[in-house]
Specification:
- By secondary structure, the protein is mostly beta strands.
- Among the domains are: 102 residues, no CATH class; 198 residues, no CATH class.
- It contains 4 helices and 23 strands.
Length: 457
Amino acid sequence: MKKTVLLLSSALLIFPQTVKADITVSGRVKLFTSLFLKQNDTGPYFIHDSGEFAIKRIETRLRLSGFLSDKISYGVRFDSFSQPDALFTAKSLPESSSLGAPTLAEPFDFFLYEGNIKISDFLFRGLDLTLGKQRIQWGTADMVNVIDNLNPVDFANFLTFDPDYFGERRPQTALNFEYYLSGFTKIQLIWLLSRQISPLPADFSDLVTGGLTSSSIRIDTENKLLRNTNFALRFATVLLNTDIGLSYYKGNFNLPLLCGVTPVGLTELEYSYTYPQKQVLGMDIAGEILSAGFWAELAYTIPEDMEAFAFNERFPLFEGPYFKYILGLDYTADIGTGIYLNAQYLHGFFDEADYSGTAESLFGFKKGMFFGEIQDFILASAEYSMLRENLKIKLGGIVEFGDHESAFSFMPSLEYKIKDTVSFQAGGFIVSGSETNTKFGPFKNDNILFFAFKTDF
């Protein structure tokens, strides 16, 4: 992978010298850090002292984009993360690599986030092809889309509570054909060259096994065959000043689902996980009425007919097909420079599904847990800008409704633009409500305060 990245970087720097090509360089340098506001000795997700850092990292983005000709453009983005703290293990000191790189003293990750080429009027007029690693966004909702199936959720960064990564999805390698029937109507066909798999947080395996050495995990994987690739189709148009989309996705769940428990010996349990296949029929609309914007998405999910097992019992994993949907409104109130209001009603978070009654009983699936049953949420925010729009204050929150329990996650923030390209951001993630039978309630003792400096160029 490192050799591929270096060759691609060199090619992009050399290639513009051999052809007439425009190149634009942009990016970001960001310092993000967060602190736990109180002590938590029991978890279940984090154990920490009051005032302990939750995360400290420097994020760097570098994007190269431009045109190789009138019909061919490209875009490449490299991301890196580094942290100032050395990594210690129980068995080794923070040693360098054999070549002297301070891999443990100065932890550093570097990866290709996105890299693609777009060919306009491919084969014939009106047909565009984008090939490579790319973000293909479907849906009209704000950040939380129930039909956005082509790019898996970045679950690892979701739990950093960095607001830039709430609802973040990872680009995938695909061939994206877009045929424009008119200026506002198009048909889109996408072939994804692999299954969509979400990045998981560090130590996730220990989390799902409760940290027990007597437990182990088994992953059901597939061979890399042509039939084990995914594809999608979408039709989009405008009718009566309303954006309308109809979509179909044939692929897989991008988060691992528990499908079996097997005793091994007298005391050990083996937990089996898999990425089941699914089909999703989607519809989305967006428009405006009386200066208020509105949007809606509906996803009808047809999971594969999968058999799960627990000890000697076999049973269906899913109850059958199920719906997810989201409804939203936004409006800018004419107060001062304008207060932007946004509210959404969500039925079904990205990690939720409709499991069979036996799976609920034997695996413990329920509402109010990650990878659990479908439940309802209200997401709302208000934003106000002042000081010539250099200072933005935002009050946001999520209310979740489980079985007879609820929790509220409050996410205030302010952002001050120091210079045109430099800004400072501060905020928090504060949870109240029931710690049981809710998804975010267990984070009640993990409230954080975060700070960020960003420089965009």
